[in-house]
């Protein structure tokens, strides 16, 4: 069985979901209490962690384990997406400094760029310099930050990690724990590879001697394998022909990112409901804001004492969720436009001019700058134009009407997308390419079916999701005609 460690707001649901197919390890005390079970404190094959924005999870570990976990997560709902990362955790690149920022440098890695803090390299670097770096903290493709890099070579783990060129034993936890773990290292049968230092992670405090030695042995094997993989590499990227850079030298791990849409979050609710009291929309609300997590936990703890809460047939409390954790009239929100290949763009920020939480409706107005034409409409975009966008929570489409400064209609663009989610600072969805436009003269046209077909062929959109998009586009077209 594959060992999986889980962290973040999706932990209970995924623990319940994974228990038949994987061995969940290194469980936190709340999870052990919730499941009334003992989970082994052994090293993981794959680590699943909620992303900082709570929109999905990242999976890092052995390629086989990561693929198996990602395959499972892809089944949480029709609007679940997955993307393998071309800059996975642990990967080593010979890259080129593309830009210098205040606290670090942007390094070109090939398909992605990374961020190298100046404190993570032992020399001054400038634009155009060649550097050898390792991905220490990967980043989702939709995030507004780059993967974090370092020049120090590491092997990552949940019980123990190794760092090359560090002649020491360190540990997480308090002073007594650190001292005890450092002493324990000398008692273990496994020898630490030459030129590698040991860091015992938090999970080591609960691990027995056998589990610690197994974890150290596995880390040592990975360190030696990484050394062997780099043995034939040039001593320095300066010895590589500039035309051959950037290039990847080693990929000991894989990283895959999974985005959960609104339907997928409800699917995870159903998984969680098999283990504990779960309100309708549990994960949808928790994804809105950090404070929402505490509110949801309080409601569920309170209701658990009164016989439970959250039948699977109950409706998501849209009004309550949006009143507490949604945009409000007069505020400004961003239109967060996700793409099926994992990227995410901002279509700009606008003012919420109308909001009816009980119906899940929000109207956003944005002033438009001059220049160019509106997509598919072919109408000139002029200074003073206004875009009026109407969102509804859970709807598979939304319209944007363009009008001139004088109030004249310039057309309407209807975007077909995964179910819209309205968060305090953004409206989020993933664009499904096919759209419908209504011209100023009343003509209606469906566009970009070819882009949807190409996305299916590229593996970015499932055939099931594509058929849903086509069906939605057809319904919108008929309604506008």
The global form is globular
Assign the CATH class of the domain at 326-480: Mainly Beta
Return Rg in Å: 25 Å
Distance between the termini: 55 Å
What is the strand arrangement across the widest sheet? 17-18-19-20-21-22-24
What kind of sheet is the major sheet? 7 strands, mixed, barrel
The secondary-structure class comes to alpha+beta
How would you portray this structure in words?
This protein has eleven helices and 25 strands. The termini are far apart. A hairpin with a 4-residue loop joins strand 11 and strand 12. Helix content is 27%, strand content 31%. Among the domains are: 3-84 and 256-261, no CATH class; 155-230; 326-480, Beta Barrel (FomD barrel-like fold), CATH 2.40.380.10. Helix 1 (11-18) crosses helix 6 (262-273). The chain is an alpha+beta fold.
List the helices and strands and how they pair.
Layout: E1 3-7, H1 11-18, E2 23-24, H2 29-35, E3 46-50, E4 56-61, H3 63-73, E5 80-84, E6 92-100, E7 104-108, E8 113-117, E9 130-137, E10 148-150, E11 154-155, E12 160-164, E13 169-171, H4 175-187, E14 196-200, H5 209-230, E15 247-250, E16 254-260, H6 262-273, H7 282-286, H8 290-304, H9 318-325, E17 332-338, E18 344-356, E19 361-367, E20 386-392, E21 397-403, E22 409-417, E23 421-422, E24 426-438, E25 444-447, H10 449-457, H11 463-480
Parallel strand pairs: 1-2, 1-3, 13-14, 17-24
Antiparallel strand pairs: 3-4, 4-16, 5-16, 6-7, 6-9, 6-15, 7-8, 9-10, 11-12, 12-14, 17-18, 18-19, 19-20, 20-21, 21-22, 22-24, 23-24, 24-25
Helix pairs in contact: 1-6
